[in-house]
Design a protein that fits this description.
Number of helices of chain B: 21
Radius of gyration of chain A: 24 Å
Largest sheet of chain A: 8 strands, mixed
Distance between the termini of chain A: 28 Å
Number of strands of chain A: 23
Structural class of chain B: alpha/beta
CATH superfamily of the domain at 6-94 and 127-135 and 287-363 and 484-518 in chain A: FAD/NAD(P)-binding domain
Radius of gyration of chain B: 31 Å
Distance between the termini of chain B: 68 Å
Shape of chain A: globular
Strand content of chain A: 15-25%
Structural class of chain A: alpha+beta
Helix content of chain B: 40-55%
CATH architecture of the largest domain in chain B: Alpha Horseshoe
Shape of chain B: globular
Oligomer: heterodimer
Number of helices of chain A: 15
CATH topology of the largest domain in chain B: Serine Threonine Protein Phosphatase 5, Tetratricopeptide repeat
CATH superfamily of the largest domain in chain B: Protein prenylyltransferase
Number of strands of chain B: 19
CATH class of the domain at 6-94 and 127-135 and 287-363 and 484-518 in chain A: Alpha Beta
Amino acid sequence: MAEAAAHDYPTIEPTSFDVVICGTGLPESVLAAACGAAGKTVLHVDPNPSYGSLYSSVPLPSLPSFLSPEPSRVPLPPSGGDDSHTVVDLHRRNIFSEVEISGAAPEPSARIAVDLVGPRVLYCRDEAVDLLLRSGGSHHVEFKSVEGGSSLLYWEGRLYPVPDSRQAIFKNDATLNLTEKNFLFNLFKLVRAHIAAADEDGEGEASDKISEEDLDLPFVEYLEKHQLSPKMIAGVLYAIAMADYDQDTDCSEKLLTAREGIQTIALYSSSIGRFANAQGAFMYPMYGHGELPQAFCRCAAVKGALYVLRMPVSALLMDEERKNCLGARLASGQDILCQQLILDPSYKVPILDASSDGSDSNLLRKVARGICIISKSVKQDSAILLIVFPPKSLEEQQIAAIRVLQLSSNLAVCPPGMFIVYLSTPCADTSTGKQCIKKAIDALFAPQASDPLEGHLEETSENNEDLKPTVIWSCVYVQEITEGTSSSLLSCPTPDEHLDYRSILDSSKKVLHCILHFL
Amino acid sequence: MHGRPRRPAKPVDEEAASAKAAKLRDLQVQVLQNHHSRTYTKEAIGLSFKLLEINPEAYTAWNYRKLAFQHNVKELSDPEAIRSVVDDELRVVEVALRQNPKSYGAWYHRKWLLNQKLTPVDSKREFGLLDKLLKVDARNFHGWNYRRFLARFMGVPDEEELKYTMDKIGDNFSNYSAWHNRSILLSNLLIQQSKGFESKQKIFSEEFELVTQALFTDPSDQSGWFYHLWLLAQISTPDKPQLIASWPCNGAKLSSSFIKEKVDQNTLSSIWCHSLKERTVPIVLYFNEPVKGLNQSSVKLKSYLEFGKDIHWRALSMTDSGYSNCWTTYLQIANECSTSQQYSVEVSIPCSEDIVSRSGSNYDSPVHFTFTIELISDSQDIDLFDKPVAWNCSESLQSYGNCEPIPFDLLKITSALIEEESNWHFERLSEQIDLFRELPDDNSKFVKLTLARLLLACAAMKSCGRSLIERKRYCDEALGHLSDLIHLDPSHKQYYEDERSSVLMDKLTCDMETFMKHCSVQVQPNSVPLNHVQLHGLSLTCVGFAERLMWVQVLDLSHNSVRSVEGLEALQQLVSLNISNNQISSFTALEPLTKIMFLKVLDLSFNEIGAHPIDTTRYICSSPFSHKIEACEAFEQCQKKNINVEEYWDAILFFKSLKLKQLDIEGNAIASKENFRTLVMELIPSLKWFNGECVN
C-alpha cells in the first residue's frame, strides 16, 4: 500500500474515517473537536508544519513566505489505485495580495509572533469563550484582559476614550458632557432590561422589551433622536456597537439595525466583569491567536482524532457522477475514504466553483490589514488597547471603520520594549483599502526613520510625550474573504473583517450541522 | 455581595445545619464552663477558637479570650513571646472574619487588641487585611469603620485617606461607605484648615462637580444622592447656630391684664399674658438648629425684677441627647413690685462656649433684646371660659377693631453668613438647580426630591424685602415637585406630604401680606382679645415654621390632614387649639401639647384616635411619654376607678399633664368606649366643658 515515492510521509491506518479535515484553522479545529466529541472518527491533516493555517500566529521572519507562498508543488501523480472513484485534482490558491513590507525586522525577530487574523480579540462573554470552556480547550490557552474602558476613538485628529461601562462613564471627562453620560448609561440599562425581558426564564419584565418595530429601525436613527454630539454617536456606533460601514449613508444594506446594535451592546456590557481578573470587555490569548486552533486540536486529539502535519491533500475522490465526495488522496498518494471531507479555504474547490450559486458577491469581499511594530505605546501607561477610526475620519473615500489593536510584550508576542499594532478595514477594492490602512498608520505614528543612525537623535527627543511612536517595521496587505460553504463538500470560512470570532463560529456551526446531518 | 435573592434552604442543608447546631451547643457549653471556672489553659483557649471559627458572633467567647489573653500575657516578659501571643489573637480574628466579614465581635476584638499597645502594630498587615476585605465587598461598613480607627490609631493623614475614598469611588461609585468617609474626612480637613483645604468654596465646588458626574451617569443609584444631600446641607446652613426667634420678641409689652380702653387704638400696646397672673414670665428661644447648653451664664437676664436664683432652661422639642431647637424657661417674679409700673427685662446671649450645636460649633452671634412687663393687680377677674369657645370660622375671621396682631418681626437677626459668601452659596445652589432641571431622567424621584430641596435652600436665603416674592416662587416650584413625588413614590407619601406642608406654611407665613389673611384678633364675649391664626382646610399634615407662630394664642388647624403636632410645643402662649377633623391617630401623637403650660381649650373632635389598633406614632415621635413617677400615680388613680390602664395608658398620660377647661373629643373611636368619660373627668378636674356640655 505504501508508496515508495512518499518516503517522508507516514502511512495512515486505518484508511477510512467518518470525517477528514484538511487545514487546522480555527473553524476546522473547532469542527474536529466537535466531531470528536460526537464520537466520529476524525483524520485531521494540515499541509503546513505547524497548526493554525490561516488562523495561526507565525514568527515574524516567516511571515513573508506565509503571505506570498511559492507556487504550490505539482501534486504527486495519482497512484493507479481504485477505479471506482473519479479523481479530481485539488489546487491551492493564495488569498493574500498586495503584500508590502517596509523597514527591517527588529531583532530578535524570531521572538515576535504575528497573528494572521489581527486585529482580533474575544469578548469575555463570547461564544468562542464558552466553547473553550465547554470543550475543555480552556486548559490549553491563557488570556489577558484588554484594558477596560480604554477603547479609543479617533475624532478630528485626536484620540478620545470611549467609556463602555458605568465606571468608565463616571470617570470620563474628555468625551462626554453630563447629559451624554446620562444617555449613555441609560442606553446600557435599556439594553440590559431588554435582554432580560427577551430571555424568557429571566426576571426581566415584559414591558422593558423594545418593540419589534423599533428593533428594525437603523440604530443610527435611534441615536440621532437623542441630540447627541456626532462624536458621541460615532463612539457608540463604531466603538461599542461595532458597526463597520458608514452609518451615515442611505444604503440601507449596510446600516446596522437597532436589533444588531443592541445585541452587540448586550454582549459588550455582559462581558464586563464576567471574569474577576478581566477589567474590560475584551481579552486576548497569550502567545497570539494561533493558540486557539491548537487548543481545539488538542481537545479533538483527546477524543481520538488522528493528526498528521505536513500532509497536503492532493486530490478528491468523487463518485462517477462527480456529485459526491467519497474520500481524499493525500500527498503521500494514499487514498483515504470518508463520509465527509472538509477543506480549509486555501483550497480551490473545483465543483463548487463551477456551480457557484450567487456567491459572487462573497468573492468580492476583502479586508486590508496592516501590522506595525513600534517601540512606544500609542497611549501612555497602556499596554493593550483598541482604537477605532470611524468611516470618513481620515478621508472621504474611507467607507468603513478601521480597527486597531495594540499588543505589548506582556502577552508574550514580542520582546519587552516593543508593541505590535494590527490594523484592518473591510474594502471593496485593494488600493483604497491599503490606502486607508496607510493613512491610519500615518495618523498614529511618525514615519520610520530612513537612516538607522537617526535612532540616536530620536531618543533624545523622546521625553516629549506628545511625540508619536515611530514605526520600526510595517506590513500592509489585502486578504480575500470567503465564507464557509456547505454542500457535500465542505469548506471553512477565512478570517473575516470583524474584531471577534462571532460570524466565523456561526458559519462553522452551519458546517457542523451539515456534517452531523449527513452522517 | 449585595442584591442577591435569598434562597430557601434545602432539606439536605437543614440536616447539616442541625448537626452544626449540635456541635455549636456542645462547644458553647464547654467554653462557658471554662469561662466560669477561669480556666485559661491552652486547650481551653483552643476550644474558644473552635467556637469562634464556626460562629464569630459568640461574644462571650470573645470576652473570654480577652480575659485569657490578659491573664496569660501578664506572665510573659519576653517581647518575642508577647508578640507571638498577640499574633495568635490577630489570626483568630482573621479566621473569624473569613467566616463572617461583618462580625461586630471580631472587629471589636481586633481594635481592643491594638489598643492594648503591647507590640508595635504592623500597619502593612492591617491595611493589607482591609484592602483584601474591601476588595471582596467595597461597601462593608465594618471595614470602613475599622479603617477610620486604624487611620487615627496610626496617625495616617486625612489627605491620604481622602485619596483612598476617591480610589474606591473610582472603582465603583455606588459605595455609601466611601462617600460617607469622604464627608467625614472633608469636614475634618476643613475644620483643621489643612493645606489645600483652606477654601471651603473651592472644595465644595469640586465635590459638587464630582458627585454630579456620578448622579448623571446613574441617577437611580442612591449613594451619590446621599452625598449630594450632605453637600447641600454644608452650603445651605450656617456653620454656627443662630437664634432665629424669641418670645417675647424685642420691644414687646406683656400685661397681666387687658385694658379695654386701649383696644380702640390702632395697635395693641400690650399683650395679655395669661401666666403673669401667677407672676410667671415665660421666655422661649428658638434656634435654627438643635443646640444645648443654655443656662444662667450663657443666657443673661437683666431686670429690676428678681427671678430667683435657679433659672432653669428646658428643651421643648427633645431630640437625641439633649439637643433642641426650642428652649424655654418660666421666670418666677420673686420681689414685691408696684402694679402700675412697667419693668423692663433685658435678655442677652453673648458668644458662648456653652451653647453648642450637634456638629460642635459654638454660638457666636450675640443677641440682645428687651421686653417690658406690666403687672396689674386686676380686681375684675376675667373668666375666659364662661361659655364654651365656639370655633365659628366666619365669625372668628373678623378682626376686632383695626388691630394688627403682634409685631411681625420676631427678632431682628440678619443671616450670619457674610453677604458675599451667601452670594456664592446662592450661586452654587442655582447652578445645581439648572443642572438637575437638565437631567433628562424625569421620573427619577431622587432628581425631583433634590430639586425640591435645592429650591427650598434657595428660598431660605431669600428672607427679607422684595426677595420674598422670589422666595414664594421657589416655594411654588418645590411644591410642584413634592406633589409629583407623592404620586411617583407612594411608599414615601407621608414624608413628601410633611415636606409639602412645611413649604406651604412657609409660603403662607413668610410675608406680612399673606400671613395677615390668616391672622386676626379674636374677641370672645366677655373675654380678652386673643391673637388668632387660622390655618384650616389647607391639607397640612404637620406643623412647620413654628418659630413664626410663637405669639399665637388661638390656633385653628381644623379640616387638615394633620398627623403630628410636633412643633406646637414652641407656642407657649397658646390658650386654645382646634385640631378637629384631622388625622391624629393616637394620644402619643399629641404629646407635644402636654408641654404647653396654659392650654385651656382643645378641640380634638373627628380625628382617628383609637381607630388604629397599632399606634405607629410611638415609634415616630421623637419624645414619647417619659414621666415615670407621675405616671404611676395616675395609673393608680385610674385603677381605683376601674379603668383599664393597659388599654388607656396613653390617654391617661396625656390627660394627666393637661389643665384644660374645655375639651371636645367626639367623633373619635376612643370617645365612645366605656369608662372614657370617667377617665377624662378623673384626670382633668379643672374641666368645665366636655363635648359641649357643662360638666362642672
